[in-house]
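User: I'm putting together notes for a lab meeting next week and I want to include a structural view of one of the chains we've been expressing. I don't have a solved structure, so I'd like a prediction I can at least talk through. The sequence is below, exactly as it appears in our construct file.
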Amino acid sequence: MKKSFQFRRFSFLILFSLTFYIASCANLRIVSKYDSDNPAPVQVNRTTYFWGLRQPVDVKTEASCKSICQITVKTNVGHILISVITLGIVVPQSVEYFCCPEVPIPGEI
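Assistant: Thanks for the context. Below is the predicted structure for the 109-residue chain, given as structure tokens.
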């Protein structure tokens, strides 16, 4: 009887851990155009405080970046652990964005 209880407890612990790790990674990708002039995205970390009541500051792009083509917001196990430990007071996220290529305006000939 004791072995059965230990096996159930161990199985529950494994199932809970797997569920936590599988559910803790999330990506949100927004694409306006698939064409980008940057081979690698620009990565920025932002943190939201007090359950979203205090929003993070805006992401300022470089002067050469006139518009953004793609944005990806990511969370990982570490971000979720910080959020759970602080009960949602601190919620970190990673943001990646690609700048759109500048389309030249045709001139007069």
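A couple of points you could mention at the meeting. The chain has two helices and four strands. The mean pLDDT is 76.

User: Perfect, that's what I needed.
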